[in-house]
Amino acid sequence: MTGPVLDFRPENATPFLQEVMERSGQMLTACYQCRRCAAGCTVGDETGFFTPNILIRHVILGDRETALSNPLVWKCVSCYTCGTRCPNDIQTARITETLKKMAKEAHIPPLQPKVAAFHDSFLESGLRWGRVNEMEFMGIYEIKNALREVRVKNYAAIVDELKGQARLGMAMFKLKRLHAGFMMAKGRKEIKALYRKAKKRPPASPGINP
Ligand code: SF4
Ligand code: SF4
């Protein structure tokens, strides 16, 4: 079985590859497709054939559409297993993180909307209080999910989600793994300032893992 033929155009491929290398700080052109990363990817069962080396190949070939929207970008758990195995020290977690940001900037709908909602809710709560406030974080996350389902009139999904989360919440509460109190960090202003500074920081040079 053969896949679709990619219309390779170096004039389109190079700027995209350069941007991903600069923003992620990873030297993608050093990849020689040995697949050591693929053999150990933690989410390999979930992403199927879409392994770290395949992702890198799509970026190198300038296949922007696939590189910004594929299962690995949305399911990578940033465990860094692939990076520790890579003979060229390529950290795919940095690449997937970069591609997620680029997809968001390009307003490409996330392949895994719940993962995107989880990221946004975590950041929102963490920045407000200087640490993630579990109750607020889960509240924001559930509201984001519910609003998305309301838009497509999938009310049953909202009920199922709330039931599942209530069961999980109760189980965690009994195990003292869920904290109902509101906690905040003393240095939350500094954390916000650090975040703003990091957003303004110029891209890292490829080959230097920031
Ligand atoms: S382990 Fe490194 S060099 Fe080998 S395929 Fe993966 S990214 Fe490329
Ligand atoms: S960092 Fe991401 S791509 Fe690399 S092994 Fe972990 S889950 Fe897979």
Question: Please, could you describe this protein's structure?
Answer:
With 210 residues, this protein is mostly helical. It has two domains: 10-105, Alpha-helical ferredoxin (Fumarate Reductase Iron-sulfur Protein, Chain B, domain 2, Orthogonal Bundle), CATH 1.10.1060.10; 113-200, no CATH class. Helix content is 62%, strand content 0%. The radius of gyration is 19 Å and the shape is globular. The N and C termini lie far apart (40 Å).
* Average pLDDT over all residues: 90
What is the count of distinct domains?
2
Based on CA inertia axes, which overall geometry fits? globular
Report, as a whole number of angstroms, the end-to-end distance. 40 Å
The poorly predicted ranges are: none
CATH architecture tag of the largest domain:
Orthogonal Bundle
Q: Radius of gyration in whole Å, from Cα?
A: 19 Å
**Name of the CATH superfamily of the largest domain:** Alpha-helical ferredoxin
> How many helical stretches?
12
Topology as a string of helices (H) and strands (E): HHHHHHHHHHHH
**Fraction in beta strands:** under 5%
Quickly describe the structure.
The chain is mostly helical. It is about 60% helix and about 0% strand. It is globular.
Characteristic key phrases:
Fumarate Reductase Iron-sulfur Protein, Chain B, domain 2; about 0% strand; single chain; about 210 residues; 12 helices; mainly alpha; binds iron/sulfur cluster; globular; 2 domains
What topology does this entry show?
Blueprint: H1 10-24, H2 36-40, H3 44-47, H4 52-60, H5 64-68, H6 71-75, H7 81-85, H8 92-105, H9 113-129, H10 134-151, H11 155-174, H12 188-200
Helix pairs in contact: 1-8, 9-10, 10-11
Bound molecules: iron/sulfur cluster (2 copies).
The site of one iron/sulfur cluster has 15 residues, from helix 2 and helix 4.
